[in-house]
């Protein structure tokens, strides 16, 4: 059931499982299925998650905290050390920001859309976008349907196995049932196929470029709940360390 993307098929397979193992009266299974929207793949794939799994963020942050905080710290010690954690995180952001200014990503395919992606995206996101662009070259459009309001393309995935549906609206916006953009904010190879070959777009439409994945993600100051600029305080706090990077 983990690989099922369709809600109806997910429900059908669940019913088959209950019959196969004769567990229709199992109280725990009833409760678990009752909150399927929180864990079932057909449902959670519609939610934004920056491409992370449900536990990836907490596990990563927990591992990072171990270098600063011990289980026997009292409340005062905890907040003192947690402030060090935030300072270290923000310092690493400054390092990454400086690196972006000094080194451009390597563009393997010399076309306008890739040059645009290299110019706006961070290096990590550009690499992922470039992977999707390479995949789009092997994606095939198998069928085209038009219902008057939108056009639906049946696209055969680059692996030649999975079939995807890409819907193009009258305003030329596109959505794919693989939900990569909705979950991670990067256009999938299936949408790129339609944008490039059917709509003849030479650049990524602005609505598909999330600011959080761009080099200008930190260009605006972040305010706390009292209205104070957090980013300004961080830069002042880290001025001497940042200058050492630029030396």
Topology:
Layout (H helix, E strand, L loop, with lengths): L6 H14 L6 H8 L6 H4 L11 H10 L9 H28 L9 H9 L2 H14 L3 E7 L3 E7 L6 E7 L4 E3 L3 H5 L4 H10 L31 H8 L1 H8 L1
Antiparallel strand pairs: 1-2, 2-3, 3-4
Helix pairs in contact: 5-11, 6-7, 7-9
**Percent range of helical residues:** 40-55%
User: Cα-atom Rg, whole angstroms?
Assistant: 23 Å
Mean pLDDT: 82
Spans with pLDDT under 50 lasting ≥5 residues? Answer: 232-247
Straight-line distance between termini: 55 Å
Number of helices: 11
Number of domains: 3
Describe the 3D structure.
With 247 residues, the chain is of the alpha+beta class. Helices cover 48% and strands 10% of the residues. The chain folds into 3 domains: 7-44; 65-102 and 222-246, no CATH class; 112-213, no CATH class. It is built from 11 helices and 4 strands, in the order H-H-H-H-H-H-H-E-E-E-E-H-H-H-H. A 4-stranded antiparallel beta sheet has the order 1-2-3-4, covered by helices on one side. A hairpin with a 3-residue loop joins strand 1 and strand 2. The chain is flat.
